[in-house]
């Protein structure tokens, strides 16, 4: 059975709640990995893993433990690329699946926007997490679990 891995440092609380409910409903082993304590309800299926506060410590722990066929939930594009290279599925907290066909373009766009910001251009940040994002994520996670768990 595949496991769910969550890059929990930047995971919105509402997405975390959706993941916990889905893990319980489908009896899917789920790990929330962060460099701080993540509040989670008691569960047979859901666990928190706190790592050191070093740069990319949570990402490195996820990559070390992730297996082919698992699902990683993250918006961290370099982490997503490493997970895809290991054969894992990757989904953002907005329900978008990342794979070999779209990850490189997303990383290139992120790098381009970073260059613009470094030159003083105001590019704005990510949009807020709306009800439509919550629904898209919940539906995408349910579809993945129905197909893979």
TrEMBL record:
It comes from the Bacteria. Belongs to the UPF0178 family. HAMAP family: UPF0178. NCBIfam families: PRK00124.1. This is UPF0178 protein QLQ84_07800. It comes from Halomonas kalidii.
């Amino acid at each position: 059975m595949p496991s769910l891995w969550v890059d929990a440092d930047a995971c919105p609380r509402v997405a975390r709640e959706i993941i916990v409910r889905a893990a319980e409903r489908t009896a899917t082993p789920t790990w929330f990995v962060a460099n701080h304590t993540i509040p989670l309800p008691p569960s047979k299926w859901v666990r928190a893993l706190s790592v050191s506060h070093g740069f990319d410590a949570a990402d490195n722990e996820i990559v070390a433990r992730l297996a082919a066929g698992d699902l990683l939930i993250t918006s961290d594009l370099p982490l997503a690329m490493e997970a895809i290279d290991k054969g894992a599925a990757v989904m953002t907290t907005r329900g978008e699946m990342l794979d070999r066909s779209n990850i490189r373009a997303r990383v290139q766009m992120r790098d381009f926007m970073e260059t613009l910001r470094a030159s003083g251009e105001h590019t704005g940040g990510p949009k807020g997490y709306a009800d439509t994002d919550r629904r898209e994520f919940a539906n995408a996670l349910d579809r993945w679990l129905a197909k893979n768990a």
